[in-house]
Write a structure and sequence with these properties.
By secondary structure, the protein is α/β, with parallel strands linked by helices. The chain is 37% helix and 17% strand. The chain has a single domain, classed as Carbonic anhydrase (Beta-carbonic Anhydrase, Chain A), CATH 3.40.1050.10. The chain starts with a helix and ends with a helix. Zinc ion binds next to loops.
Length: 173
C-alpha cells in the first residue's frame, strides 16, 4: 500500500474526531517563512506558539520568491498577521549543490534540457541568505513598515534559534 493510500485510510479516523470549529476562518498572528525540510515542521514546538497562530509559508531554503512576497502580503493584509519571521536552518539541502550543478545533472540524467536553466534557489550561507531575505521583505513597499521582519536560524543539532540581524542594524548597534 502506498503512503498516500495509508494516509487516506487514516484520514477516515481523523475525520471522526474532527472538531468543526477548526474549520472557522483562521486568525493567524505571525507569518513564518521556512524551509520545506521536515525538521522545521514542528513550528509550534520550536516557537512555543499555538498552531492556529502561525501562518506557514514553505519553500526550499526558504527562498523568498515573488510568490512568497505575495503570500506575505496576503498574510498581513488579508489574514491579519502582524509579524514576519524568516526561518532558516543549519544543514539545509539547498546548500549542497549550486543551481548550475543541478541543471547540469538533470540535463544529463533525463536527457532533456528544455526546462534549463531552472532556478532552484540554492545558497551557501544561511546567515547571508537570511540577511538578503530580510532586506527583500523589508524593502517591499506593500509590506507595512510597522510589521516587524526578523530572521532566525534554527540549529538542527541543538534545536536552538539564533537571530540574524540585518546589516544596517548591526552597524547601528
Ligand atoms: Zn532547508
Amino acid at each position: 500500500m502506498s503512503i498516500l493510500d495509508k494516509a487516506l485510510e487514516a484520514n477516515r479516523n481523523y475525520a471522526k474526531n474532527y472538531d468543526p470549529m477548526l474549520g472557522k476562518r483562521p486568525t493567524p498572528k505571525i507569518a513564518v517563512v521556512t524551509c520545506m525540510d521536515p525538521r522545521l515542521s514542528d513550528l509550534s514546538g520550536i516557537l512555543g506558539l499555538p498552531q492556529a497562530d502561525i501562518d506557514v509559508i514553505r519553500t526550499g531554503g526558504p527562498a523568498v520568491t515573488e510568490d512568497v512576497l505575495a503570500e506575505l502580503i496576503v498574510s498581513n493584509r488579508v489574514l491579519g498577521t502582524t509579524e514576519i519571521l524568516l526561518l532558516n536552518h543549519t544543514g539545509c539541502g539547498f546548500t549542497t549543490f549550486t543551481d548550475d550543478e543541478m541543471n547540469a545533472k538533470l540535463r544529463a540524467s533525463t536527457g532533456d534540457a528544455s526546462p534549463a536553466p531552472m532556478r532552484f534557489f540554492s545558497f551557501k550561507d544561511p546567515e547571508e541568505n537570511t540577511r538578503e531575505q530580510i532586506k527583500k521583505v523589508r524593502s517591499h513597499p506593500w509590506i507595512a513598515k510597522e510589521v516587524p521582519v526578523r530572521g532566525f536560524i534554527f540549529d538542527v543539532d541543538t534545536g536552538r534559534l539564533s537571530e540574524v540581524k540585518a546589516l544596517e542594524e548591526e552597524r547601528a548597534a
